[in-house]
Amino acid sequence: MSSAPPAFDRIPLSAEVAETPLVSDIDRLAQCCKAAGEALRLEILRALRNDSFGVLELSEIFNVRQSGMSHHLKVLSKASLVSTRREGNSIFYRRALTDPCSPLGEFSKALFQAVDHTELSSTVHANIETVKSQRSEAAREFFNRIAEELNQQQELIVPPEHYLDSARAILDHCPPCTNGVALEIGPGDGRFLATLASRFQTVIALDISEEMLARAQHFCEQEQLDNIQFLRGDTHHAQQHLVEQKGIRADRIICNMVLHHVPSPADVFNDAAKLLNEGGSLIVTDLCRHTQHWARERCGDLWLGFEPEDLTDWACAAGLACQEELYLGLRNGFQVQVRRFDKLAIP
Fold first, then answer.
1. Which range in 131-145, 167-181, 244-258 is most confidently predicted, on average pLDDT?
2. Distance between CA atoms of 76 and 83, rounded to whole angstroms?
3. Same domain for 257 and 330?
4. Whole domain around residue 114: which residue ranges?
5. Rounded to an integer, what is the distance from CA 294 to the centroid of its chain?
6. Is the model more confident about 109 or about 168?
7. Across-strand partners of 324?
8. SS3 label, residue 120
9. pLDDT mean over 121-143
């Protein structure tokens, strides 16, 4: 006698299986339009064109309470118009990358382009400069404080010998010079100034820290380098002092392990483009993106490295084109990018 077949629970044909509702492109576009339907949120997107800011900084820039600013940023984030990036214990907001292959990406790109054709008020501009000045002052105070300990601080992350040879090689690949002027941003202890002094008629050492600049000057005196000029300030000050007041432009600008300390990396690219002769080159050595949060306190890092695309985008926006790049992996897990960006001659 055959046994009865196993019993199965019968599901009525009319029963509905619960499914997670899918968000359609129309829903995403509607959310994006809703997020953009507020003047303040459009101003926030405009302020984030080439910069990243924390919620407290944005509150200060737009004179809005932190709770209100957090709400606006949450709306923009849900609409995929801004993204976040953690830097140590701080969270910075930036524009989200757009996907050109999606309807939302096309819309976001068009929205960003439209927003970029608007101007922020003079008050907002002044507040942005105040925030950047606060960052710059913190960096200046840090380097004034640790000037004598610079080498030990560098050894914690990337000893200079691991990247200076690569920077030197890329420097020697650059096209011929126009007037023999080189500018180094943040020369540190001055050792790369010796490389530049042997290749250029005039070398300008630029630093925001008087203590660091004095240390570089002491090195140059010991090495008897007599074609070095020293200028205290940031790249914006250099652009005003050299280009606008003296009509001096550089053929090469060197920025070794400095970008992750500056208040606005995009501003460095913009200023460098104005400081360079046509056909001139900006050589940047810096860390790739990492998650070693201790570097902020121990080494004064404002940014935990950069994605290569970040540098490329900032350079492109400033009118500079990437011509050469090297990537160096280190045993401690850090990775260094050495990049060359040229200011192409106008045909």
1. 244-258
2. 9
3. yes
4. 25-120
5. 19
6. 168
7. 340
8. coil
9. 86
